[in-house]
Amino acid sequence: MTPYIPKKIFIEDAVKDLPLTRRVLSRCSSVPIEIIPRAKELIHASIGRLPRTDVLLLCRNKGRFIEPCPGTSSYLCCGYTILNTGTGCPLACSYCVLQAYLNNPFITLYVNLDEMWDEFAANGCMLQQETMRIGTGEYGDSLALEHLTDFIPSMLSFLGKQRNAVLELKTKTTHIEPLLGRDHGGKVIVSWSLNAEEIALSEEHRAALIAARIQAAGRLAAEGYRIGFHFDPLIAFPGWEQSYRRVVDMIASHIPDSSISWVSLGALRYMPQLKAISQQRFSASRIFTGEFVPGLDGKMRYFQPIRIELFARLAALLRAYSPDIFIYLCMESPLVWQQALGFAPSSNADLKRMLDERVKE
Ligand code: SF4
User: What does the pLDDT look like over 286-329, one tens digit per residue?
Assistant: First the structure.
């Protein structure tokens, strides 16, 4: 797949000379740039606009780089730590929650990385006794901008000095070159979001083909990386079971199950305002035409029996390939866990413990 290059770059004046700004600009030498006094004013003037994946904004993160995943008190939550290096994503998935969640329409990179390292130091991460699962894939794709940022080498060097921190990179790309041949010390889990090939083709507009994602996972598994898969969002469409079966078969033929740390399952869910935004951007999409009900978190979801059927069938397919594979659900109640998977963590802490154990193996 072709690496992302923006058509325009806005740069906040205060960060124009920072090392990461210079690095990004050196890799986008023919892209027009505009220096702006403050990112905040540009973002305010753009609130309510549709996402602009062709525009990159380089600015300072004035908030926190490291934060606990917000989760939802009504559902089991896995105790993830988000590393917030930027927001927005060029891959243009019709169901992407970021379209409704972010009020900044631009692909944004926080270039004040010195402050990020200070924040890590202040968090005493090195001294933590507890496992810290850190992920960069919450507000964008972990590898989609790596060719511009070179973030991975410095992150690997940081992880090498930590006792208990591991990094999960979540992606729908095949941009694995920065990871090949590296000393990762078993501290990096590379996860691919997967879907039925039909859904990937019709809804994940600039993402890699499913077969290519799984082949990329196979190459990294061969280099000793831990691998994760996220079947999220599962979509109920005619023939879904056969289509998802083909994806599980592809995993089985490319990835040894001993390399897989976890597989998560999540069914399509969306903030009510997302539907209208998505329909303006992706008018051919049909995924929002089914029947949905509001969940305890206010997001629209399939009826519970449909969700349970999706999860239970996927779990059966995955367990046929590997009986001991660790499967967890994203944003579901203990009742749904029990009915779909046959077990449920007793608490958020219990789910966190289960996932932490998967990265210690
Ligand atoms: S890859 Fe993820 S972050 Fe990027 S557009 Fe798709 S759903 Fe959104």
Answer: 999 989 999 988 999 999 999 999 999 999 999 999 999 999 99
Q: What's the fold here for domain 65-88+113-360?
A: pyruvate-formate lyase- activating enzyme (3.80.30)
CA of 249 to the centre of ligand 1 (A): 24
Q: How far is residue 216's CA from residue 212's CA, in Å, rounded to a whole number?
A: 6
- Please name which of 216, 166, 177, 221 lies closest in space to residue 194, comparing C-alpha atoms: 216
* Per-residue CA distances from 249 to 20, 132, 242 (Å): 41, 32, 10
Per the listing, tokens 């996972």 go with: 217
pLDDT digits (tens, 9 = 90+) for 179-206: 999 999 999 999 999 999 999 999 999 9
The model's pTM is 0.95
State whether the beta carbon of 91 lies less than 6 angstroms from ligand 1.
Answer: yes
Q: Using an 8 Å Cβ cutoff, are 191 and 226 in contact?
A: no
Residue keyed to tokens 């006794």: 129
Q: How far apart are CA 165 and CA 159, in angstroms?
A: 7
- 88 by DSSP, 3-state: which? coil
| Closest Cα to atom 8 of ligand 1 | 96
Which three-class secondary structure state does DSSP give residue 122?
helix
Domain boundaries, the chain: 65-88+113-360
